[in-house]
Backbone:
């Protein structure tokens, strides 16, 4: 085999490997956006950290009167639980302009659990209460951006209960009843925007 | 209004008011010795009293120091020194400012009217009050309450409301075609309303002494009165003038299904709709500030202020018992608020709040009532009035309504929706509304209320403009007016529904357990 021929074969092989990697990542990404809990089959993927799914996250509209659902890239999670954590972590991050986050920016996710019945428990730091604007409408937006982020993107999650500092709470800011898990509720969501 | 008041005063003081038509009208000095006129004159744009007139009334001596060019006025051995060209008076060595210097016309000296309460009162050692709008000078401890009247036509009733400050004992008597409201006072300082119901009342005027005369119309039948204490020592007198019910003319239209023909309808004192107690919940409080405005306004203070105003007006206008969940800056648990309403068998629960948004432009009032979907199937069953068959002593079963206390509101969703609709309509007449004026939400304070219940967000405290409105008296009064109007309509519609034939009345879910 001449040197020139070896070079051609080498280039073709590299292109083939790169193409296969790209195709695998693409397929995983698409499967992940539908049913992330079944997408945990690619443990051998060479770039697992870069895998993403598309998830709908919720932010306060420019007029402050509704939530807006936005398709965003969220890191892939191996299981429902992992994916739920990734979705909430993304929901807690800074909102894409010109939208605003309904959750105080200092809020962190302390823990998250999902029961066999599909009830998710989202344990947030006390900042979600302390740094909150205190308005009833904003409180609804805060609660339902979290509830909807999980129930919309993860069919396995049916209901969500918010905990603060590991404890059940009556309300977050004096209005919305948080003593029970809440179902998906899109009545405060205006229209869904496209990919960002 | 001002003209009416001035006119009423002139009528009352007709015998002693000067005949000449100078402008402006004279003041009236009221003391324990009686009434005296005290003319004024406009000099250099300032209204002034002649020093000679004051000297006669208050037994002053006036001495002009020709060398120094000053004036010394002595009252009860206390000297007041005035200097021409200076807007100051020295009383016992203490300097007091005046709006203008003393003025001289011919041989007469004049002083600005404010000289009397500022300088003369200090020299006399007696309180002297100058009421410019009503042109009164009150000397010593004379009792001249301010009276602000209003009139409201409520179908066959004209309601006259007199706010009296300070409160004064009074009596209402009828003499032929006139009603007299006599106050235990040395005089009155009234603002009397115009009434547009000539069949019942022709007009109101100031009578002799400290009395108000109500000239009655041809169809006046009877009257009733009630008194209420007001804020800061004031009082409120309410007089309902009720139209006679023996119609002299044939009925022009078919009577309404519930129209009573015999006794006059005591619509407020015995409300047919059954609203006797209203609980007004001032949102947040104590350790719970609620939302903060950009100017530092706290939601808890706004809600308390409006709640207090609302209580006063509801008691006066609807004649109902009003209970506040808090009457000070106290922390009250959400459970306790609904429990207070339940334990007092309240008929309506109104929770007052101010909204907040991460968007400073968000504005407008909103009305919320409970949504049941978040509470699952059990709440839906309660709302539908379903019963459970429970075993009873002696065998067998019996259908019992089993309702979790925390789900009490589920039975009143329809009525709460009707109440929210009335609230929204009432607020829309007076204050800006949000694009989402009526909403349903799983609000903790509402779910345990065992009666129609709404939560009113009066406006966005995070909007700088709305923050100013929320703390203003005018806006708070508008909110109160809106809520009172709404509750009145809600009560009347409930009364009409209850009075309607049973077949036409919509079923009230679980209504049988209501007291």
Residues:
């Amino acid at each position: 085999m001449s040197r020139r021929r070896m070079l051609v074969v080498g280039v073709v092989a590299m292109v083939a490997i790169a193409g296969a990697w790209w195709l695998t990542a693409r397929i995983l990404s698409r499967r992940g956006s539908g049913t992330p809990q079944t997408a945990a089959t690619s443990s051998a993927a060479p770039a697992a950290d870069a895998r993403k799914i598309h998830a709908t996250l919720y932010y306060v509209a420019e007029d402050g009167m509704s939530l807006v659902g936005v398709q965003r890239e969220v890191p892939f999670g191996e299981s429902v639980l992992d994916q739920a954590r990734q979705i909430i972590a993304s929901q807690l991050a800074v909102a894409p302009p010109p939208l605003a986050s309904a959750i105080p920016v200092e809020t962190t996710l302390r823990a998250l659990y999902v029961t066999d019945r599909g009830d998710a428990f989202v344990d947030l730091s006390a900042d979600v209460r302390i740094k909150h604007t205190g308005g009833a409408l904003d409180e609804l937006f805060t609660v339902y951006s979290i509830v909807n982020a999980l129930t919309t993107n993860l069919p396995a999650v049916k209901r969500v209960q918010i905990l603060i500092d590991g404890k059940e709470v009556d309300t977050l800011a004096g209005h919305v009843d948080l003593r029970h898990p809440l179902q998906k509720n899109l009545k405060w969501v205006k229209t869904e925007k496209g990919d960002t | 209004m001002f003209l009416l008041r001035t006119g009423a005063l002139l009528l009352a003081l007709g015998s002693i008011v000067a005949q000449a038509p100078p402008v402006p009208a004279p003041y009236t000095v009221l003391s324990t010795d009686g009434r005296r006129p005290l003319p004024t004159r406009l000099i250099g744009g300032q209204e002034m009293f002649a020093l000679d007139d004051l000297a006669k009334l208050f037994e002053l001596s006036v001495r002009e120091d020709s060398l120094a060019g000053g004036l010394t006025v002595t009252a009860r051995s206390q000297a007041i020194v005035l200097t021409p060209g200076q807007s100051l008076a020295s009383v016992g060595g203490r300097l007091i400012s005046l709006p203008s210097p003393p003025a001289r016309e011919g041989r007469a000296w004049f002083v600005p009217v404010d000289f009397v309460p500022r300088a003369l009162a200090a020299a006399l050692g007696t309180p002297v009050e100058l009421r410019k709008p009503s042109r009164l000078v009150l000397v010593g401890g004379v009792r001249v309450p301010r009276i602000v009247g209003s009139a409201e036509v409520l179908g066959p009733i004209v309601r006259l409301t007199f706010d009296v400050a300070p409160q004064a004992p009074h009596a209402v008597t009828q003499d032929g075609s006139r009603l007299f409201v006599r106050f235990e006072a040395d005089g009155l300082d009234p603002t009397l309303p115009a009434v547009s119901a000539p069949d019942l009342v022709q007009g109101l005027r100031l009578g002799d002494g400290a009395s108000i005369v109500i000239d009655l119309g041809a169809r006046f039948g009877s009257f009733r009165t009630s008194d209420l204490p007001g804020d800061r020592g004031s009082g409120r007198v309410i007089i309902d003038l009720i139209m006679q019910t023996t119609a002299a003319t044939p009925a022009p239209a078919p009577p309404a299904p519930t129209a009573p023909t015999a006794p006059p309808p005591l619509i407020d004192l015995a409300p047919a709709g059954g609203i006797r107690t209203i609980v007004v919940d001032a949102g947040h409080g104590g350790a719970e500030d609620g939302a903060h405005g950009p100017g530092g306004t706290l939601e808890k203070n706004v809600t308390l202020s409006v709640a207090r105003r609302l209580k006063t007006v509801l008691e006066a206008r609807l004649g109902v018992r009003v209970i506040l969940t808090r009457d000070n800056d106290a922390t009250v648990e959400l459970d306790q608020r609904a429990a207070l309403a339940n334990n007092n068998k309240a008929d309506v629960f109104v929770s007052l709040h101010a909204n907040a948004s991460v968007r400073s432009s968000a504005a407008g009032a909103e009305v919320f009532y409970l949504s049941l979907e978040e509470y699952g199937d059990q709440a839906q069953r309660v709302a539908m009035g379903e019963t459970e068959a429970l075993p009873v002593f002696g065998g067998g079963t019996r259908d019992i309504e089993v309702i979790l206390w925390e789900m009490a509101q589920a039975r009143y969703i329809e009525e709460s929706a009707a109440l929210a609709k009335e609230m929204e309509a009432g607020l829309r007449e007076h204050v800006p509304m949000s694009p989402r004026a009526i909403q349903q939400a799983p609000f903790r304070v509402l779910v345990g209320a065992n009666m129609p219940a709404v939560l009113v967000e009066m406006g966005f405290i995070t909007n700088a403009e709305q923050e100013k409105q929320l703390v203003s008296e005018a806006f708070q009064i508008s909110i109160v007016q809106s809520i009172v109007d709404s509750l009145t309509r809600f009560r009347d519609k409930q009364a009409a529904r209850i009075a309607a034939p049973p077949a036409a009345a919509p079923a009230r879910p679980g209504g049988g357990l209501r007291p």
In short: The longest strand of chain A covers residues 52-60. Residues 23-46 of chain A have pLDDT under 50 and may be disordered.
